[in-house]
Amino acid sequence: MARRWTNTLTRDDVTPEHLFLNRRAVLGGLAGVGLAGLPGSARAQEGLEPNTWEEITSYNNYYEFGTGKDDPARYADALTIDPWSVRIDGMVDRPGTYAFEDIMDQMDIEERIYRFRCVEAWSMVVPWNGFELADLLSLAGVQDRARYVAFETVLRPDEMPGTRFPVLDWPYVEGLRIDEAMHPLTIMATGIYGRDIPKQNGAPLRLVVPWKYGFKSIKSVVRITLTDEEPPTSWNRANPREYGFYSNVNPEVDHPRWSQATERMIGGGLFARRQPTLMFNGYADEVAGLYDGMDLTEFF
Amino acid sequence: MSVADPINSALRQVPAWTLYVAAVWPPAWLFWLGLTGGLGVEPIKVLEHRMGELGLQVLIVTLAISPVRRLVGVNLLKFRRALGLIGFSYIFLHLLVWLFLDVQIVGQIWADILRRPYITIGMAGFLLMVPLAVTSNDWSLRRLGPTWRKLHRLTYVAVLLGAIHFLMLAKGFQLEPLVYLGVVAALLALRLPQACVKPRATA
User: Fold this and answer.
1) In chain A, whose CA is at the least distance from the CA of B117?
2) In whole angstroms, how large is the CA radius of gyration of chain A?
3) What is the value of ipTM here, to two decimals?
4) Which of A116, A186, A233, B182 has CA 20 to 30 A from B150's CA?
5) Is the Cβ–Cβ distance between A146 and A179 less than 8 Å?
6) Mutate which of A26, A51, A200, A257 to test chain B, going by most B C-beta atoms within 10 A?
7) Ramachandran assignment for A178, one of left (phi > 0), alpha (psi -120 to 50 degrees), beta (any other)
8) Tell me: the pLDDT tens digits for A211-255?
9) A100 three-state secondary structure
10) pTM (2 decimals)?
11) CA neighbours within 13 Å on the CB side: how many for B93?
């Protein structure tokens, strides 16, 4: 069933490994002579060059490990990801606990180079490896009456220091409408740059919905429930005025505390310029039809 | 008093100007780190937040000076002007990073100041400190006389607004800004009895 969607970004757009591992050193050298702004501005014009491994794996929001951007890279190592299984239940024909290895045996892993736009107005381009969520759901057999998909992140206070304080109501939960979940752009990522996905990025498997703000792309998934009611989502529960269920990337609907019209690409250094945010994060051609007739200001 | 005495005599050897010299280094070092990759892959936000936090910390120390003298007997009064000006300068740098490195777009800056309450409050706190910084010299102190004391009570409001600004920009329920707000509230509360008693005593 996979390969329904073709990348406009190609493998050629991915920085070769020896370059992405070394670019920091190059940047550092340039910065010394006051040229730190150049790589960022050049990249802003191309727009599509993936971020380096170091950028993608050192700047993360994964509040279970702490609210600092470097906390996940520092503390996520404690997370046990082997063994791992995902419970798929609710309105499915074959509910049960699916072992990660069994899932991987049956999935066709492909590369998806996606823009990633955080609700905090920064962005990256990430070369994910993974499979379509629709293929995972078809393992369990989605019933016709299912209207929504609910997701849950693992909760292990012993391994996750950030969960000892109620920054959010743990465990982290997210949700999609069934048509969003079945869309070929929606994937479960298991790798980055062809390597296993690092723990700070949501190992061993996480959701990636590239046209929505990053917090929708829930990490380290242990449970997927098919339901006929809109499921609760963590940030919406924490602050419904600021975070809606849909949370589609939309430059015209501001976050109450900051503008969403522009974003800053990670990796441009101290003098990085902002660039305009694209409707549906640049995936309007593929997904705008899902929201025909909906007022996106009301359903933000 | 026996504990405070040696500390006070040691402090008498330290001229206040040394603080200005020392204060140059944290922002200079942070800026250097930002240029050379030492602040991570998104140095702008780190620099912005660190300058704001440093400013708030220094201003909190400034607020602590008179309670420390009253309760512990350690006299740091001669450093208070320097600390106030350093705290103000750090907040000014925090503002400059926000304006020129973070937001960059003039139209958006105005929209943010007017429409985003946490920015409105932060900006108000900064503006309240401008007249205080301008009058932090002996000449103004002599000229303004008793008005100077009243004017400089604006510090209380400015620091409180700064702590509220920090709390309002946190995502989710976070401990750190609550601790800052708690410390500021406590330092202000320590002044309440004084403020109530003093006018009567002098009257």
Assistant:
1) A257
2) 19
3) 0.83
4) B182
5) no
6) A257
7) alpha
8) 999 999 999 999 999 999 999 999 999 999 999 999 999 999 999
9) helix
10) 0.85
11) 26
